[in-house]
Prior knowledge:
Elements: H1 11-24, H2 31-39, H3 50-56, E1 69-70, H4 88-99, E2 112-113, H5 120-123, H6 126-132, E3 143-145, H7 155-166, H8 172-185, E4 193-195, H9 204-207, H10 211-223, E5 227-231, H11 264-278, H12 280-284, E6 286-292, E7 296-303, E8 306-313, E9 320-322, E10 325-326, E11 332-334, E12 347-350, E13 353-354, E14 357-359, E15 364-369, E16 379-384, E17 387-388, E18 393-399, E19 406-409, E20 412-413, E21 415-420, E22 423-427, E23 434-442, E24 445-446, E25 450-454, E26 459-467, E27 475-480, E28 498-501, E29 504-512, E30 516-524, E31 530-532, E32 538-541, E33 549-551, E34 555-556
Helix pairs in contact: 1-2, 7-8, 10-11
Amino acid sequence: MSCRWPLIPTTQELRDLAKLVTAVELLRAGFGRRLEEWLADAPVNETPDLGTFLYAVVMAEDQIQMRRIKSIEGLVYGYMYENEEWDPAARVALSAVVRGDEPALGVRISFEWHDEIAACREELDDLAVRLYDAMIRIAPAAVVHTGSTHCRSSFEYFRASTNAFGNFSETMAQFGAMLTQTSTDYIYESQAITFLDNHDVTRFRYIQPNDKPFHAAIATLMTARGTPNIYYGTEQYMSSANSSDIAGRGFMQVAAPAFSQTTAAYTTIKKLAALRASNDALAYGETSILYSNNDVLVFSRKFYDKQVVVAVNRQPAVSYTVPALVTSLPAGTYTDQLTGTLLGASNTVASGQLASFTLSGGEVDVWSYNPSLGTTIPRIGDVVSTAGRAGNRVYIYGTGLGGTPTVKFGTTTATVVSAADTAIEATVPAAPPGILNITVAKGANTSNTFRYEVLSDDQVQVNFKVNASTVVGQNVYVVGSIPELGSWDPAKASEAMMNPNYPVWFLPVSVPKNTTFQFKFIKKDGAGNVIWEGGSNRSFTSPSSSTGTVDTAVLSWQ
């Protein structure tokens, strides 16, 4: 999902949320108690500044007993299924929130899953699906991350930023190429979770102790494509005792003066989080590289007429002069959105060119153009979630979405539950299963499309297994008669199966519950050549329940 949220919470909403969290023990690390203490003296109607709010909710993630599900996009670790330790009252309280019986809170929770659980979403009961299908409505513009970054995590971003800003083993030109290449490769690039570090890797500060490239990395993270995650303590320059993947899980003092709200890192995160909230170019925009060399990168993010241009110099003590650059920014003067925090300054645009400028050591400039796109033409920026069955809720984000819009999945009209200028809540219609395009229409104006997978039914996880020998360059896939298995189209088959115990291959796949379907295994190489196994089509009937998993026998290639 995009990291632009509908609104910043008020203190009263946060206080209510803190009480709910404390009451139902959603967090065992003291989050609810600490948040209530922090809010105790705050004026009821005051909106806390983003930075203060972000770090008031930091928690010790290792104390939380998570099983298969980890929430990484929100501030609340939510419902966990198959966990007898949770008080039933927690489920009742969460259910009340999701049903809307607690309108003062309006809490919506979004989940991400561990990689190894391919069908987690489909295994959840109705309450958890409601949680999955919802966004957090009282949350800031950036994401606090204290737990896992699995599944949609952009480890390629992590690798490239470590090499470009950390150990300097890659150039900024290579980093820029990664941004554009992955933007093309990823289906939902705005939902890729980007990070400099987390609880499974070395602290970035340990790799890069110099403030200037450290700050440049943070600024780039907050403005690049994807949803940025800030690991607790980054704004306080927390490092690791060594390079191990667990050494960074240290205690962070949250009381002054040890905890500072005036560090350059803290200020950079705060200002750019606010910019992500206000300019859709950072939340949804496409990436273009305007200029790059070994140490400098200038890139733009653009969502229709909204645009942000970012100029970064990673070298702490070397200045570079950037030539005049062709730009689609209108003529005018653009102020640095970081107001000089990282040594940036204003620049001008005339005759379609951004004036030549000099970047001092470690300088980062962020220039923003944020015109209104109006309310007449609907434009889709992001959709949550990206897959679901008929009856599930879906949340469409963008601009010009208010009034009485018509939402379609392919050619099938969906029921609109609510519509505002920046968000639509709708119900997935009984459309043909498979990949469809969502569109929003208002009068004669129709939005851009957004890819969505309509599932046949509630899903259950089937672990396919086959004993098959291959040659170098080949992988094994499963394809079958249902949309979830590509409807017999090899180009739409499952992802490649895994083979830690070659020649046995396996792959967990989500299929509709209580369904008899046919399937076969195929081999494909990098050139797209396909070899089908022989014999008759195989047949399988999935379990009637959408909970749990089931394995096939280890089948033999026919």
